[in-house]
């Protein structure tokens, strides 16, 4: 068949993405029924909505140490060359980003070595907005996990468990990071909670704040236990309010630079 | 119920990820049957295997301009502080990375502004390994698209179409970038091919080489037409041999720094 004929045929009979995925979904169910699902299934049928959980990142985005997390230097100029490239200076733990085990363990797993099978996983969201509104250093505690399980069922092995403290509404305000006296002030996980999640086989945790530990933490108890265990974390998540407590599939677009302790990442979810 | 009871109950009755996704898949099919699928479905049932299409990236990874694409400077030292952070200098178009429209259009869409609905999409892989073995500047041509469609069916709207030229086997060799005389030498897309893909509603293209255009291109015809049209590209893809020609779902973990012309990305697929 000639080129033009084929192209016209393609255009006239083009499958929509809906048709494509509907057919794939049916094929997937057939595979499930036949017991052909692999040992580490990681994605289910999705209705197709992508929710971006990543903040746009620039030198004004709040950071833990208060310094700009990214700096831009012109590398190639458009007017001179017809294209353009930035040279970026990036401090790894800036923006919506990953904490790899290597961040808090001298010889731990780097961000490039994370098991890809854990980078696409079920997402469970624990909402502590009510208590965070009362206590800006509120923590996800074991009783919040109990309540979540009672309401939503068990947390799947390999899942990511994210805290929704409502803190993303403070982006652009000093209160995202500090109280009126300049003390670190934001919600996080308690070590008792992350110890429980470890026992459940959870692979990663995420927060909508600057740190896995709450702002008033004196010992970084979650960082110093969760990360050295070989698990990873995600900080500065966005848009968790757009997702259900359970049922979404998380995509962790972790960077893959060798020996990285973490880095700005693209985090998305499917619902 | 007490905390310990709940945790033990969770542990004893924990759903495997397989069970979780099997249930979700069934729910998804029900939604499809009820016509509840959204206008932009983007994921189908998956058997659960994640294939990482991203090369590990360091200063030795080949770049178009031959200079290191990433440099590391110690920001926080583990022995001094109990944790560690790198300061990274990254040239945007290095490693497995995105070309956003802004790379080749002065006021085009930045990498942070790409529509997230196009970052999770069907992946179609056109294999030109045989002709690339004969001609190291071989191109995906319209007839390769015709042959792909004849063998695999129509290319879904919104898909990513990737070239598999077998070039990843040359990583670590001078031949990934140059011929014996030092000329740029690697396969890519022809503009006639990408013009056809544009008409089909394809949203992105990917290559397992340093550039969307072949090494001997004199005019960067694909870069200067595809990117300014508002579409994006992915360069230096890995592991395409591990995927079927069609049926995989691509996850494009594009970075999200403001005004970015592109950048190192985490690319994965589900099969």
Automatic annotation (TrEMBL), chains A, B:
InterPro entries recorded: KFase/CYL (IPR007325), KFase_sf (IPR037175), TAT_signal (IPR006311)
Record PROSITE patterns: TAT
Superkingdom of origin: Bacteria
Pfam families linked to this entry: Cyclase (PF04199)
Name recorded for this polypeptide: Cyclase family protein
UniProt source species: Hoeflea ulvae
């Amino acid at each position: 068949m000639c080129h033009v004929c084929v192209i016209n045929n393609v255009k006239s009979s083009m499958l929509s993405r809906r048709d494509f995925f509907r057919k794939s979904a049916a094929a997937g169910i057939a595979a499930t029924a036949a017991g052909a699902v692999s040992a580490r299934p990681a994605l289910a049928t999705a209705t197709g909505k992508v929710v971006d959980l990543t903040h746009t990142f620039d030198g004004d985005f709040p950071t833990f140490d208060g310094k700009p997390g990214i700096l831009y230097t012109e590398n190639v100029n458009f007017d001179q060359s017809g294209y353009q490239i930035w040279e970026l200076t990036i401090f790894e733990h800036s923006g919506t980003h990953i904490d790899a085990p290597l961040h808090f363990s001298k010889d731990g797993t780097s961000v490039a070595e994370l098991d890809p099978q854990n980078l696409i996983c079920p997402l469970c969201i624990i909402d502590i907005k009510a208590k965070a509104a009362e206590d800006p250093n509120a923590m996800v505690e074991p009783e919040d996990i109990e309540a979540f399980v009672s309401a939503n069922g068990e947390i799947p092995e390999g899942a990511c468990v994210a805290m929704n403290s409502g803190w993303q509404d403070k982006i652009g305000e000093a209160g995202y990071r500090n109280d009126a006296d300049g003390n670190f002030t934001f919600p996080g996980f308690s070590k008792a909670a992350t110890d429980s999640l470890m026992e459940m086989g959870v692979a990663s945790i995420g927060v909508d704040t600057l740190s896995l530990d709450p702002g008033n933490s004196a010992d970084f108890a979650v960082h110093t236990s969760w990360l050295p265990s070989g698990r990873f974390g995600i900080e500065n998540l966005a848009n968790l309010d757009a997702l259900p407590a359970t049922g979404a599939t998380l995509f962790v677009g972790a960077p893959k630079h060798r020996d990285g302790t973490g880095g700005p990442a693209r985090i998305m979810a499917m619902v």
